[in-house]
Amino acid sequence: MRTSENGVELIKRFEGLELEAYQDIAGIWTIGYGHTGADVQPGMKISERDAEELLRRDLKPREQAVESAVKVPLNQNEFDALVSFVYNVGAAAFRGSTALKRLNKGDRVGAADALTWWNKATVGGVLREVMGLTRRRASERALFLTPTALPQVRDPEQLDENSRATPVEDSPRRGNVAESRTVQGATIAGGAGVAASTMGRDNAEELDQIETNIENGTGMTENPDAGEGSTPPTSAVDGSETETGEDGGDDASSTDHPGADVETGEMIEVPDRPSKHEVHAVEAQVQFALVILIILSVLFVIYARFDDWRNYRR
């Protein structure tokens, strides 16, 4: 196939005409209707007729690229739109594009939509949308979807081509509520949050039980060898050893000890209070659970974006 005059005019409209060589936004020397190559030199000047000839010559390899890559029949408008697309993005980019993959699978509307994704360019080292590209992609899409023959509106086999049916709005959405990113994210965050709160609650209850045992003077202490009802070593609170007499009895001065009974002078059990280590352990476990929650959330966001890019290219 050859590009029709309609397709040529579309390319001319968006390429523009420059009769003197210039550098485009990518720094490539260009002349005429977007002609580039080693033959374009700074200071080069041509006529409008020369520009037309260069354009016709440049179209041939683009037309061959479309014909060799597309495996389904094309009408003239589809072919013209694709040639304009290849003229702008290049044959290699077209061969690797989603538009071509969809087209070869028979999804023509999906292929037309995929053309519009090619509307960004790196300008000054920054990738950004270029309005001229957005307009060009919109025009190519419109041309691609424009039928070349009148639809057979009374033929039931031509229902897909009938544009006289009364349309209703149906915005794109996921198949069911469970596929909603919001619901999925809330489920993951909620599950991780429950796990985090459960871990924190279990450790808080353990710490509370230790506090209760201390208040009652019973139960386990920090000493792993001390069981319920056991008598810990009679040591001073400040860590100094208790003075004893020669017969092993308590010195009278022990009545002044914070751990001694003020009436009998005998030592009583003073369970150790939870250490800072225990408190910090609880805090560390809660923080660890929160870190897990954050990591799961980040991983979900990354997965969701990748899935959207792979399936919806957005």
User: What fraction strand?
Assistant: 5-15%
The span between the termini is 33 Å
Averaged pLDDT = 77
The assigned structural class equals mainly alpha
Over all CA atoms, what is the radius of gyration?
A: 40 Å
Q: What share of the residues lie within helices? A: 40-55%
Shape: elongated
Q: Report the uncertain regions.
A: 226-230, 233-246, 248-255
CATH architecture group name of the largest domain: Orthogonal Bundle
Succession of helices and strands: HEEEHHHHHEEHHH
Count of helix runs: 9
- CATH topology of the largest domain, by name, is Lysozyme
Commentary on this structure:
- With 314 residues, the chain is mostly helical.
- It folds into two domains: 5-148, Orthogonal Bundle (Lysozyme); 179-223 and 272-312.
- Helices cover 49% and strands 6% of the residues.
- It is built from nine helices and five strands.
- It has helices at residues 5-15, 48-69, 76-89, 91-95, 98-104, 108-115, 131-145, 181-216, 276-312; strands at residues 18-23, 29-32, 35-36, 120-123, 126-129.
- The strands form two sheets. It has a three-stranded antiparallel β-sheet with strand order 1-2-3.
- The radius of gyration is 40 Å and the shape is elongated.
